[in-house]
Specification:
alpha/beta, 7-stranded mixed beta sheet, 30 strands, globular, disordered N terminus, binds adenosine-5'-monophosphate-propyl ester
Length: 658
């Protein structure tokens, strides 16, 4: 369970009301009103068909939902559309070509603005050239790029050509990239020469070279690597003739006119790999019509979006689902003007985000609780030094937000005038599922409140019975939804097992989160109930980190848990047993192991703490007792140790843990 401080039980005071109604002025002109719930309740499928028809279809659909082959859904059956045309051409044709789509801010401070017409031209060039490379609809493309405009251009060019993209976070290691490239059998990899980190260029293409290998070890599926010049810092950049192509020499020279083809509503749009309980990351598959419908609908209603006046900013990286849905497809399908920022919040200093809000008059700001807690740590004098009066709505995503951080966000960043939308969803759900509507909901700090209109969720016990208010249960989605995942790439069994087997008799989707309703019917998401950790809003599985650790020659066995962490929600704590004969070199070894995990997976998976132990606590059936390790890592009294083979193990672990 996440421990970022969910209460849901605290009592109201004058200073801390239980719930915050929307400001009157906001409610009076809100995009989404309470009728939306009634409309969706009256006829859920008609409601979704209406949302879908807000998009541009080249061929209308005949059926809203075909659930006859559950859990494999088909939404908007028979419909054809082009996702990129919905994000670009449609707005240009409507006369909004001069509207800024993207205010891009580079890490070192360089900037670039792209209007809808310019973005369409760039995407057309990329589509023309990628088409020339011989890729055809259905071929996969891996995108391994920092937050440069070309990353969004590449994503949309893929969508335009019907090439499912697999964006791999540029902070992931070469090994992580390789496994994703292989699993998806990507034909093309798009990357940059380097990326900026804290004002300095760092290599990126070298990781692609390492990932793709050479000779016998070469990734078989990859024919080309398309390289955007971003840092231009390495005169000796490795270049594989015949495979590697400069973007500016190829895409840059292509025609900016491209006529699109419409694809089936169920044509695959993208794969996004995410951590599960066991095994390697899964390629979550999303398709076109249903995904775009729910993304466009949630963006408009949850963010109360006004295309003429709003400036939206989603702080997520394109490597995560939040970046896909609310940095690319949501804003652009709505014709929004948005910020895309390349760097970290403290480069060059902690004022960066607030300077951007002030400069571009950002109205809507959407980030993860971990960042809000970081801002709290830095102190309110930083945001207070800036004019943030353009803000009118704040959003939170990725992990439970503790009430204290929620209130700070509302008071310090939102000056007590901006509603907060705490949005619960997952890579698998594709779009927001549970969230306040900003002009309607009396939001409680820390609660995602209730399913959005058109969405249905339940909290149930092991036997699928609804739990009473105040009691904790499993969060399930009991009705299919348009942007639901359509499968796990290449592994239908894993799709069924992971999400649909827990409540197979009922046909419900098992989210993997614990939750409870309070006495007022507000829904509180409590965090993962499986072995998935949530570190700064990033999903990392314990088994992934364990297998990285045992991949080190000195480690015989490893057990990893997510321990409560004030800033990051959870922090990774690893217990390792060394191989016999391996000397415990203290901090030197610990640092080496941390660096090993960082290289094998990503710096985000680097353990906060590694504790060398002589033994791990195991049950008689050989299962590692993670619950007890969590107690140790969080400094609690030990829980029930009666099922352990050898309870004295803990004496040794505690001694080591100091
Ligand atoms: O545990 C929930 C948590 O993040 C998980 C999904 O992670 P991921 O697929 O990486 O997607 C994150 C961005 C949508 C969920 O199972 N989570 C996400 N949003 C919230 C949340 N937990 C509580 N409140 C939220 N608003």
């Amino acid at each position: 369970m996440s421990s970022a401080g969910q209460s849901g039980t605290e009592s109201a005071t004058a200073e801390h009301p239980k719930a915050y109604p929307p400001p009157e002025e906001f409610a009076a002109s809100a995009v989404a009103t309470a009728d939306l719930y009634d409309e969706a309740d009256a006829d859920r499928l008609a409601f979704w068909a209406k949302q879908a028809r807000a998009l541009q279809w080249d061929t209308d659909f005949t059926d809203t939902l075909d659930w006859s082959n559950a859990p494999f859904a088909k939404w908007f059956v028979g419909g054809k559309l082009n996702v990129a045309a919905n994000c670009l051409d449609r707005h240009v044709e409507a006369g909004n070509g001069d509207r800024v789509a993207i205010h891009w801010v580079g890490e070192p401070g360089d900037t670039r603005d792209l209007t809808y017409a310019q973005l369409l031209a760039e995407v057309s060039k990329a589509a023309n050239y990628i088409g020339e490379l011989g890729l055809t609809a259905g071929d996969r493309v891996a995108i391994y790029m920092p937050m440069v405009p070309e990353a969004i251009v590449a994503i949309l060019a893929c969508a335009r050509l019907g090439l499912p993209h697999s964006v791999v976070f540029a902070g992931f290691s070469a090994a992580a990239l390789r496994s994703r490239v292989d699993d998806a059998e990507a034909k093309l990899v798009i990357t940059t020469d380097g990326q900026f980190r804290r004002g300095k260029p760092a290599p990126l293409k070298s990781a692609v070279d390492e990932a793709l290998g050479t000779g016998e070890d070469a990734a078989k599926s990859v024919e080309h690597v398309l390289v955007v010049k971003r840092t231009d810092h390495d005169p000796d950049l490795n270049w594989v003739q015949g495979r590697d192509l400069w973007w500016h020499e190829t895409v840059g020279q292509a025609s900016d006119q491209h006529s699109y083809t419409a694809f089936d509503a169920e044509h695959p749009l993208f794969l996004l790999y995410t951590s599960g309980t066991t095994g390697k990351p899964k390629g979550i598959l999303h398709t076109s019509g249903g995904y775009l419908t729910q993304i466009a609908y949630t963006f408009k209603n949850v963010f109360d979006h006004r295309p003429e006046t709003d400036v939206f900013w989603c702080g997520a990286d394109i490597g995560w689902v939040t970046g896909h849905s609310y940095l690319v497809y949501g804003p652009l399908s709505n014709g929004a003007t948005e910020i895309v920022y390349e760097g970290t919040p403290n480069s060059p200093n902690e004022h960066r985000h607030f300077e951007i809000i002030e400069k571009y008059k950002v109205t809507t700001y959407y980030v993860a609780p971990t960042l809000i807690r970081t801002f709290m740590k830095w102190g309110r004098e930083i945001p207070d030094a800036h004019d943030l009066t353009s803000l009118r709505l704040l959003g939170s995503v990725g992990e439970p937000i503790n009430p204290e951080a929620w209130r700070w966000y509302r008071t310090v960043i939102g000056a007590d005038r901006c509603p907060i939308v705490d949005t619960w969803w997952q890579t698998e759900t594709g779009a927001m599922m549970i969230s306040p509507l900003p002009g309607v909901t009396h939001a409680k700090p820390g609660s995602a409140m209730r399913p959005l209109p058109g969405i249905s969720a339940k909290i149930v016990d092991d036997d699928a019975n609804p739990v009473a208010p105040g009691e904790q249960g499993y969060l399930v989605l009991d009705q299919p939804w348009p942007s639901m995942l359509r499968g796990v790439w290449g592994d239908d069994d894993r799709f069924r097992d992971t999400y649909w087997s827990r409540f197979a008799a009922q046909g419900w989707y098992f989210a993997g989160d614990g939750a409870r309703y309070d006495e007022d019917g507000a829904l509180w998401v409590l965090g993962r109930i499986d072995d998935v950790m949530n570190v700064s809003g990033h999903r990392i599985s314990t088994s992934e980190v364990e297998s990285a650790l045992v991949g080190h020659s000195g480690v015989a066995e490893a057990a990893v848990i997510g321990a409560a962490d004030e800033t990051t929600g959870q922090g990774i704590v690893a217990f390792v047993i060394l191989r016999s004969g391996v000397e415990d070199r203290g901090d030197e070894l610990i640092d080496e192991l941390k660096a090993h995990v960082s290289k094998d997976i990503s710096p985000i998976a680097k353990p906060r703490e590694i504790i060398v132990v002589p033994e791990l606590p195991k049950t008689r059936s050989g299962k590692i007792m993670r619950r007890l390790l969590k107690d140790v890592a969080e400094g609690r009294e030990l829980g029930d140790t009666s099922t352990l083979v050898d309870p004295t193990v803990f004496e040794n672990i505690r001694r080591r843990n100091g």
